[in-house]
Structures are given as structure tokens and as C-alpha cells.
């Protein structure tokens, strides 16, 4: 009888703890509303030639949710991992209309439209949703 009373006590204790225990809420730094976020700047206007040969501007992306990363095709460490993550996002959000992925190359001398096109093909990038843009060097 002692073990059944102990078991019942554990079960009831667990039930009451799950039912009435305080839930973690927003406290500290994460309690601030989104309006309190600082602005660190904005994306400057740009006009870059996408791997397809089509000029792409910031205005083309307005009104869309877009996720950007910065890569270069000869990179052997983090860039392939970043691009693989972008490929996973493309697959995960394939049914989300209006979502764009944008990979900016930081090596525009080597990453021509042809090179970016081959790189994009390796990752099965959907040309309608995932843009590959060569950056531009400041003069």
C-alpha cells in the first residue's frame, strides 16, 4: 500500500506542478516591443546584373520578404554551408509566394553571371525565387 500511495502522490504532484507552475514569460531584454529595435541602416539602392543577365534593383525586391547572404563561389569554408542552408530554406518555403532568396557575391571580378549560374545550378536554385547577384566594388 505504501508504494501505491507514493505513486499516487508523485502523479498528483506532477499533475499540479504541470497545471499550476509559473510559465516562463517575457522578462528582461526580450520583453521589449519590436518598436524598440534600433535601426542600423537600410539597404542602399542598387542595380546589379543577375545570373540570368537581367538587371535587378532594390525596387524589384520591395514588397517581398527576402533573405540575403553574402558569398563567393571560390570559397571553400563557410560559403558552401551558407548556400546549402539557403537551399534548405528554398525547399522549406517553396509554397510561400513572394519569398525571395538573394545571394550577393563579394567577389564580382571572378563571380561573373556565367560562374554564378553554374554555382546556382549546383544547388538547384529556382531562378524565379533565388537570385544570384555579383556585388560591385567601390571605385
Characterise the protein shown here.
- It is a single chain.
- The protein is α/β, with parallel strands linked by helices and 139 residues long.
- It is 35% helix and 18% strand.
- The chain has helices at residues 2-20, 58-61, 78-92, 113-122; strands at residues 47-49, 55-57, 65-71, 99-105, 130-134.
- Strands 3-4-5 form a three-stranded parallel sheet.
- Strand 1 (47-49) and strand 2 (55-57) form a beta hairpin.
- The N and C termini lie far apart (86 Å).
Concise structural overview:
By secondary structure, the protein is an alpha/beta fold. It has helices at about 1-20, 60, 80-90, 115-120, and strands spanning about 45-50, 55, 65-70, 100-105, 130-135. It has a three-stranded parallel sheet. It has a two-stranded antiparallel sheet with strand order 1-2.
Helix content: 25-40%
Please tally the β strands and state the result. 5
Question: Tally the helices: what do you get?
Answer: 4
**How would you describe the oligomerization state of the chains in this entry?**
single chain
Overall pLDDT: 82
* Classification by helices and strands: alpha/beta
Assess the beta-strand content as a share of residues.
15-25%
Q: Biggest β-sheet, characterized?
A: 3 strands, parallel
Sequence of secondary-structure elements: HEEHEHEHE
Shape: globular
Give, in spatial order, the strands making up the sheet with the most strands.
3-4-5
For the termini, the CA-CA separation is 86 Å
